[in-house]
Fibronectin type 3 domain-containing protein
Amino acid sequence: MVKNTLKFIFSLILSVTFNVVAQQGNRSIDSVRNIYAIANVKSDQIIIRWAPPNHIAWTRGNVSGYKVIRYRVNLEGRKPVEAKQIGNDTIKPFSLEEWKSKFPQDHPYAPIAVQALYGKQFRISEQNFDIANIRTLSQEQELRYSFALFTADMDAQVAEGLGLRVVDKNFEKDEQYLYVIIPYDVSQMDTGYVFVDTRLLTPVPKAPNLEKNEMENQIELRWSVENMQNVFTAFWIERSEDGKNWVRLNKTPYIQATQNPNQQDKYIYYTDTTISRNYLPYKYRLIGITPFAELSEPSEVIEAMGRDRTAPQPPVITSIKDVKGKIELEWKIENPPSDLKGFIIGRSNSIGGEYKPLTTQILEPSVRKFTDNSPDPINENYYVVFALDTANNASVSMPAYGFLIDSIPPAKPVGLTGSIDTLGIVRLHWPLGKDPDITGYRVYFANAIDHEFSNLTPYPIQDTVFVDTLNLNTLTKEIYYQIVAVDRNFNHSARSDILKLVKPDIVPPVPPLISDYLVTDSSVVLDIIPSLSDDVAKYIIFRKGGKEKDWTQILVLSRESLNKKKIIDNTVTGPNFYSYALQAVDSSGNKSELSPSVGVKVNQSIKVFQIEGLNASYDSQKKAIILTWMKPKSEVEYYVIYKRVNGGKFENFASVGPDKVNFTDTELIYQGEYQYGIKAVFKNNESPISFSPIVLVKY
């Protein structure tokens, strides 16, 4: 086994160990196999500590023992490799008699170690150790194992008595060694290794600095251990009132339970609940305990005190009302504290929104009434009352709604649209009214236009969409709808114009498709594949984006108009994202599903060069179309005019001088639809093409 181990040593040193030590020093753990080992290098001794990987291996190791072999592995090759046994041939825990002879009965850690080794049942007196501070383990053997390793970290003699420590005092200076911990029972663990460079002494690091959270009648301390894994096992927390005389707050070394065993905690927390009163300053410092039972230098001293964190009782708003266009509110507060500083009134337009203070100064503690002289006349007004004490602790009342008396109804709704599918599902939609205090809509229907309309919505619906279900097995082929807007004071608007819907008698048409698109900074040109259905009467083009959050109808085209298979939307502005979708409507009013939407990006228009106000109108007497436009801001060299007829391609038609702002087209060959485009040519640039509306020419 030694020969095999020797071969492994050289490969280990050359490939791993030297790099690890060079980067991290002797504090690093190099656990090549199951046994975990660390080294503490001093000028006169080298201490080796190890731990079996689990409680089963620990139990077997206690019976069979360990052997420690030291190999000189001079990396420069000047000396031969040398093997030497360190300590006894078999390193095992002390017998019960040895424990009794070497340790007093009141030793803080030896009785725990003996109980872990030889006790019939593992029990720890709370006087000896605060067991509540350790994560409880499910099995007794795991508990024995955990406490044994902890006591080994707390006391060097206990570690030796547990058979988990050896000291090497006979070593050469400026040498490199590899210590090999060999278990005699290899059924549950294998050899452990730790590399040592005697030139690199192991200093005891300074304890991490404390952070504070000053609470009422207690002080929470925390310190970071994120980058100190395996540096400290436990800590002493000390407090002083004068900075000279220090008292330890924990009777036993302090450790914190790990919340997640698979994740290293970033902080350890300790709460001092023994302070005598608030606002009395105390000084705190921390001392770390290493796995070799060494104490670190104290951390930097911090000062902390308990502070008043109790807010006053929350105020209760008892009255809120409209007084001649002003909102007046009153409140009360139960058992106002002696340190009550006063009140602040907050207002918001929504119950869960941000409440902004209405007062620049805190109201006196005796005040119980406040008047808002300028409530929001359009939006909702919610109020809260904050109570503050002299320590700036604050409580807040429940929100209260203050409303102004309103007798003006909303405007009449417009834009009511709807459809009926073959299942008899009616979908109504309308744009949201401009009145900001609208809370909902009521929907009415009738089977005939001369019938009394019935209410479908006993409560106003808070939406601009309504779905109704019809029985299609009736003699009536039409149905009529109206809507009414309702504001927050239940004022009802005039009814909308009547919407007539024809009940479906055939399958809805096949949706059209958007096959391609062209985007400029002022328009979007859509290439369309018309619906395959023969009875399509018209197409509806929808758009959303920019200021339109929902699909908005922007254009309706007849079937004949769409035969040109192009749609131009010159009402876009950039920069914005837009989505387009189409819908086919047949002669019976059946509507197809919306086509798959197409998203486009419109860049910002170059307004300096853009031609605006392009208009085209047909003069029936002159048999001509007259174009007019506004002159751009920059100096124009000349204008280029484009023309297309009945949805054909735009072609270069004419050019005019820079002083022109109108043009007359007398070359009207066909009846039908005419559309024009114009661009301005400048000295070093040219404008985007602006497009006119479509002009219908009939003789």
User: Anything to note?
Assistant: The longest strand covers residues 548-558. The domain at 316-402 is CATH 2.60.40.10 (Immunoglobulin-like).
